[in-house]
Write a structure and sequence with these properties.
Elements: H1 2-19, H2 21-38, H3 46-68, H4 81-100, H5 127-140, H6 161-190, H7 193-209, H8 217-232, H9 237-264, H10 279-289, H11 299-305, H12 325-328, H13 340-348, H14 351-370, H15 379-396, H16 402-440
Helix pairs in contact: 1-2, 1-4, 2-3, 3-9, 3-15, 4-10, 4-14, 5-6, 5-7, 6-7, 6-8, 6-16, 8-9, 8-15, 8-16, 11-13, 13-14, 14-15, 15-16
Length: 444
């Protein structure tokens, strides 16, 4: 039923968009709400739940109201209906690719929560290791304090600055946040005073390390959303979707005011007119004002994803749509972001967005299987949660700097997961070794 409603809705959205892009985006609003309603019960794909919540925020309500009210962003002037319609078509192709990877997959999860061995349920107890790791990461932030006040983008022209930015700012903040996630999961399971105190201390460190004044919102999303996915991903799914929507659509402009207001004079603008929700507007502007180049066969997408690398290591630096003279000359803001399905369009034509959606959704089918609140806290489980959380800023556009945040989040997840599971592995190995000794030396 859910699959049928999607394909019917995608056809309606395309037909409405060919008449008027406002109607097309309005149809996407209805389609996203219907899909969220059908995904609201326990089980099913956590990825699709995050996917449609993101679509609803960035790619449906905002562009519909922006076009209807003739909003002018970045001093580009009004865009034609044809450009907005083409941007809508790219979005619909991507959504179609995401759902195509789900054909034949049952709506319920392949595994049932709680089917794991009861000896594996719970979290190990290396609280001191996790807390010491948090303190070490927190202390690292003071080695290069200048990098901790980069609110958006990467400051400086030196080749080493992007790498320094990751190791002295983004990664330490992610480590502190993911250690808090691990300690919070442990506290919720063990319910001891010591575990709650440890989680509270980690939360205090995380709040100081990642604050809205000097931290991009991607850090908060990729750092804290894993805890919410763990808590509500299989159970209270409406709560998870509501928190994702409220945190981005409600707090996004507010954090924008604190993080950028003192630097660039940004004023608070109410959703959906805030420039945090201009993804489809930028896509339409580029499609209208820049000549479409020859197919890049993956070079545009690789150039976008490798944005955080130094110029020497950047893959295909010349294949950056936001660096074209036609773009720089028509947008007053150079630090724009493109949704990845747009760069996939430059690479492979209209088939590009659909292929990208198919590949991403197929990959997240594996991640979905790992999302089980009853699983032991391990590096692989935390990494799966981080990947799901990283999908939200990835959809907003990797050129904005999604790469360093996601990479740092995955590294932090592996660190916290390894620390959390070390004592757990040793507990499991001891009985196994004892059994082997008893089997080989029965008289021992």
């Amino acid at each position: 039923m859910r699959t049928l409603s999607f394909w019917s809705g995608i056809v309606c959205a395309l037909l409405c968009g060919l008449v008027d892009p406002v109607w097309g985006y309005t149809a996407v609003v209805v389609l996203a709400l219907i899909q969220l309603a059908m995904l609201g019960a326990s089980g099913g794909s956590v990825f699709l739940l995050i996917h449609y919540a993101t679509i609803l925020i960035y790619f449906s309500i905002a562009p519909a109201m922006q076009i209807a009210n003739n909003i002018d962003f970045w001093e580009t002037g009004l865009l034609s209906a044809d450009a907005h319609t083409q941007a809508l078509v790219l979005l619909l192709l991507y959504m179609a690719g995401v759902e195509a990877a789900r054909l034949g997959v049952p709506d319920g999860p392949v595994h049932l929560p709680g089917r794991h061995d009861t000896h594996l349920v719970g979290v190990a107890h290396p609280l001191l290791l996790l807390l010491s790791c948090s303190l070490a990461a927190f202390a690292t932030l003071f080695i290069r304090p200048d990098l901790n006040f980069v609110a958006r983008g990467i400051a400086g022209d030196e080749d080493s600055v992007p790498i320094d930015f990751i190791f002295f700012s983004t990664l330490p903040k992610m480590v502190v946040l993911l250690c808090f996630v691990a300690l919070a999961i442990h506290a919720a399971r063990s319910k001891t005073l010591w575990s709650w105190c440890a989680a509270g201390l980690a939360l205090g460190l995380a709040a100081i390390a990642a604050n809205p004044v000097n931290t991009a919102r991607q850090v908060l999303l990729i750092g804290l959303l894993p805890l919410l996915i763990h808590a509500f991903g299989r159970g209270r799914r409406w709560v998870l979707a509501g928190i994702v929507f409220g945190a981005i659509a409600g707090l996004g402009p507010v954090l924008n005011l604190f993080s950028r207001g003192s630097f660039w004079g940004e004023t608070l603008q109410t959703f959906p007119f805030s420039q945090d929700f201009d993804a489809q507007f930028v896509v339409a502007g580029i499609l209208e004002r820049a000549p479409i180049p020859d197919l890049g066969w993956g070079r545009y997408l690789l150039s976008a994803v490798s944005f955080f690398l130094p110029r020497d290591l950047k893959m295909f630096p010349d294949f950056d749509p936001l660096g074209w003279s036609a773009i720089l000359g028509n947008f007053s803001q150079s630090n724009l972001s493109l949704p990845p399905f747009t760069t996939a369009y430059f690479d492979f034509g209209l088939a590009g967005p659909a292929m990208l959606g198919l590949a991403i959704s197929a990959g997240f089918r594996l991640v979905d299987r790992a999302i089980d609140p009853n699983r032991p806290l391990s590096g692989s489980y935390l990494a799966a949660l981080v990947l799901l959380a990283a999908y939200v800023p990835f959809m907003r556009g990797p050129i904005l700097g999604w790469g360093p945040f996601a990479a740092s989040g995955l590294i932090a997840a592996l660190i916290a997961g390894a620390l959390s599971s070390r004592a757990h592995r040793s507990r499991r190995l001891r009985p196994a070794r004892a059994h082997m000794v008893q089997r080989d030396f029965p008289n021992a």
